[in-house]
């Protein structure tokens, strides 16, 4: 992956599964549909890791995100 | 749903029921009436999930929102 | 109520009783006198719900507001 | 009192006694000397309500203020 | 003291002893050397009130300041 | 290392292993791939120090970072 | 030291040992290499006071800094 700016790794993850950890520690795994510079993000085919609930989609507010990593 | 920018999923949810989780963990389910870029939001026919109270409408301040997802 | 932008529901509540919940969970019920885009707000004929104290008026700082809803 | 914008109630309280509650819950009662748009504020003839200490003046930083109300 | 804007009381305290309380409740007493609009501040001949330690100077970051008052 | 502005030490760490501590105390060690002015950062060959998990990469949101230091 | 603006005391501490306290209370002692207006800072020959660990350098994010003072 050619990463020049940090946000590149998010845009290049479009269509791939990623894991997002929020500032409150909650984690969400899903396929990245869209992201912006905050980075607000929309995932689909989502799993809420702490409840194991399945969701068709989720909107995660950028300023509440702590980190993003590949799914374990 | 054609999602280009993350906020598209909110604007495309207008008139539909969504579930909003605030930074303090409180959740509100209701029909999306209006939203903006923060995203401040107004829902109607609202249920406060932790008290099960019914409200005709609610204004949720954007910077206090953590995530938005379809109702369970 | 014709709500185009979320803040419309606040401006259209002018003169009506509303309930405001702050980020620390405290709730204030009163008649909306004025609001702005933050939304800083002034209520009159106010009840502090957790102490049941009556106040002639209150100024609530916008960035400390979590949500606004009709009085229960 | 003619209140058009919420901050009007602060400017119109100049010279009067008001009660200011900070985000950490501490309350200060005193005569309003000056305020600005944040609203940073200076009170004089001040009482720190939780210690009952008397102070000639106090500067309260705007972003740490939660609400303002008339003294009880 | 002629206070038009709240920050005037800080600029007019230059060379005088003041007491600064931070958002975490820690208090610092010292002679005000310099301040700006945030208000970042530099005090000299400083006492850390909770440890009673003496310091030649201290830089206090403005956004972490809660209030400023005369020394007790 | 010639460090004129603080962010220089991050840009000059590109390709090197660094340790990043987040505001919640969690620490991540990895090779710096990209950074920007916030400083959002992407690390690869990552170790989550508190779980010892290995990750191919991680995106760390700048405003949630507390400090950066060389690996111990 | 000629201090006109508060940040002057940081720029004038370049090459000198200072002690930086973060918002979470952690303290770092080291020689100031670089600082900017936030004030992001880089120290070298660093001691992490609560663990007594020695580090060749550290980058401290400005918005997470509470205060700066001379080493005790």
From TrEMBL, chains A, B, C, D, E, F, G:
<feature type="domain" description="Sm">
    <location>
        <begin position="5"/>
        <end position="72"/>
    </location>
</feature>
<dbReference type="InterPro" id="IPR047575">
    <property type="entry name" value="Sm"/>
</dbReference>
<dbReference type="InterPro" id="IPR010920">
    <property type="entry name" value="LSM_dom_sf"/>
</dbReference>
<protein>
    <submittedName>
        <fullName>SnRNP Sm-like protein</fullName>
    </submittedName>
</protein>
<dbReference type="Pfam" id="PF01423">
    <property type="entry name" value="LSM"/>
</dbReference>
<dbReference type="GO" id="GO:0003723">
    <property type="term" value="F:RNA binding"/>
</dbReference>
<dbReference type="InterPro" id="IPR001163">
    <property type="entry name" value="Sm_dom_euk/arc"/>
</dbReference>
């Amino acid at each position: 992956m050619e990463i020049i700016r940090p946000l590149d790794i998010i845009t290049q993850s479009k269509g791939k599964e990623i894991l997002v950890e929020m500032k409150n520690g909650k984690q969400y795994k899903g396929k990245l549909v869209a992201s912006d510079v905050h980075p607000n993000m929309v995932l689909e085919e989502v799993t809420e890791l702490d409840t194991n609930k399945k969701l068709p989609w989720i909107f995660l507010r950028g300023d509440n995100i702590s980190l993003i990593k590949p799914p374990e």
